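User: Can you help me understand a structure? I only have the sequence.
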Amino acid sequence: MHLLYVDESGTVSDPNQHYFVLAGVSVFERSCHWIESALNEIVRKCFDPQDMLSLELHASPMRSGKNEWRKFKREERENAIVEALSVGVAQQNRHNVRLFGAVIRKSDLPADPAETAFTQLYNRFDQFLRRLHLSGNTQRGIMIFDKTSIEPRIQTLAREFKTSGHPWGHNRNYAEVPLFLDSKASRLIQLADLIAFAIFRHFEHRDSKYFDVIRHCFDEDGASCMACTFSSAMPDGPTIRATGYPRFRIGYPKACRMVVRKRTPRNNIRAGLKRLAKNSSHMTAR
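Assistant: Let's start by predicting it. Here is the structure, written out as tokens:
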């Protein structure tokens, strides 16, 4: 089984923030213990707390030095974030650990950004599990979220997707609807928080210090190099393809634009070729 630990970064209702991020890390069940142990070792080595669980790897207060992180130097805190992303994700076997994410520019989306991001992530993870099945490695998956304000909306959507499907079809590879737990109880939920924060900083503040550590760790599908479902066309950066979505680019956040199921020029060309092939077959039959 693959467990997708998910967290958000950015606030849906904050008008001063341009982006909302929902992202997570998929971990094969046998790797969970070892990654959590490695993250605990980082906390012990860098901060040596009397109570290991008293320090939660929560990116925003770590970077800003709030609450229990106030007594540590900023350099130590930022280095710990980078090391956690490196040890927990970048240095792991890609067969066991990979990243997923959805980035929404709120001004371009009239619908709820949290619901749209969840729909994209939910389908993308299912597509990953489907690819495993087709390759002969049948696995089930489950999404595990931190308890947040978006929990009621996620639970409602998950029930609807399970019974009625979602805008792109039906999901067939989940073991259960998403689960929610307190982030203090799970280092892997905390790792998902660091990942979402790294993506958010990259787009919202053009700060790629953390994102560069995990840039190469996203799920790949065919010719794509990342599995983030950025529904936009960006002038710079590598091309990505999420199954069922148009081809996008990742680059500078100023060009990011959210487009929901919009027919792109590439799709228009494909549709025209299909019509041409269909007409040709009819002419041949005659």
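Now, to help you interpret it: Residues 2-261 form a domain with the Nucleotidyltransferase; domain 5 fold (CATH 3.30.420). The chain has eight helices and seven strands. Let me know which part you'd like to focus on.
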